[in-house]
Specification:
With 342 residues, the protein is of the alpha/beta class. The chain is 42% helix and 16% strand. The protein contains twelve helices and 15 strands.
């Protein structure tokens, strides 16, 4: 699939959440370069077994149920997480924080030397536009959502664990991951476009980074290859992006128009979107409503503000360079969506 594995040393890897969007692509790339791959998840995954992976069934919230998966492992890619705009606070905490703590403890108990954590740029988002931001950004004092807050706390656990019990760690923050197999970002946009519910929030001129799935998986493998106690990667966090910032609403319009829908034209001021978001959140807290709110204050900020990041640190420390361009990524993704009937 165009992946150059000549620089990579064969190993046994464990991928938590290996059946998810990012996790599965990491599994596929590891197998493609001849690595031995184990997958940890709450269900059985016959498709991954058919690809050549060994699957372990367990819940990261229960250390005893996952310990066996870590035996003989050279590197863990901890991708499993509770993701979303809405949900029970306890679920975000137990999966993202306790789950990460259990993964770290299992690495210690089983002598795993390397741990690569999948984080998110949202861990540093503080309602302020982020333009070519780098890793010196601090965590915000107040978070707008449980997801970024619990991911930030989990990331801090991972970085703190670096150098303990022979374990080297690092954290990657891929931004707005998309591509073939995405069941969240683009499908969600297209569903709203189909119903005529796409509304431009804010001025509509905000600039963001997207990151094609292959580039995200590639970054994980490259970081793992360089991760050792004496390397600059150990104990560090990295933004991972396409390095091709685009106007968010121009990108959305291009995708929906090419899929046969109308480009969004209706507009909503950010203050109004946030106000509606607060009402929606309150309604979901008070009433047993199904699904999740259509808008939240966090989502409103993300849709209206610029957020794109420098990848200079990832380039310097482990040679990250996105190989798949936005143009090629869009072509591949649209072809996939056509095949899937989205």
């Amino acid at each position: 699939m165009g992946f150059d594995a000549t620089w990579y040393v064969s190993m046994r890897a464990l991928v938590t959440g290996g059946n998810g969007f990012v996790g599965r692509r990491i599994v596929e790339m590891l197998l493609a370069q001849g690595d031995e791959v184990a997958v940890l998840g709450r269900q059985e995954y016959p498709e991954l077994v058919a690809l050549g992976a060994e699957c372990f069934q367990g819940d990261v919230r229960n250390k005893e149920s996952i310990m066996a998966a870590f035996k003989g492992v050279d590197v863990v890619f901890h991708v499993a997480a509770k993701v979303g705009l809405w949900g029970k606070r306890a679920d975000f905490e137990s999966i993202n924080i306790l789950g990460t703590e259990n993964v770290i403890n299992c690495c210690h108990s089983m002598g795993v030397p390397r741990l690569v954590f999948t984080s998110s740029p949202s861990v540093v988002f503080d309602s302020v536009p982020l333009c070519d931001a780098n890793e010196t950004l601090p965590y915000p004092r107040n978070f707008l959502s449980d997801y970024p807050e619990t991911k930030a706390l989990a990331e801090q656990l991972v970085i703190k664990a670096n150098g303990t019990n022979g374990l080297s760690t690092c954290s990657l923050r891929p931004h707005l991951v998309w591509g073939p197999g995405d069941n969240h970002l683009l499908p969600g946009i297209l569903r709203r476009a189909e119903k005529g519910n796409l509304i431009i929030v804010g001025e509509g001129d905000n600039i963001v980074d997207f990151t094609y799935i292959d580039n995200v998986a590639q970054a994980h493998l490259q970081a793992a290859a360089k991760l050792e106690p004496s390397s600059p990667v150990a104990g560090q966090c990295y933004f991972v992006s396409q390095n091709e910032p685009v106007r968010f609403w121009d990108f959305v319009s291009e995708i929906v128009v090419k899929r046969g829908y109308s480009a969004p034209k209706k507009r909503l001021p950010l203050w109004a979107a946030k106000a509606i978001g607060h009402i929606c959140e309150a309604s979901f807290r008070l009433l047993p409503l199904p699904g999740e709110p259509r808008i939240t204050p966090f989502l409103a900020e993300q849709l209206a503000k610029s957020h794109y990041f420098s990848i200079d640190k990832a380039k310097a420390d482990f040679g990250y360079e996105p190989k798949i361009s936005m143009k090629v990524g869009i072509e591949r993704t649209l072809a996939f969506l056509e095949e899937q009937g989205h």
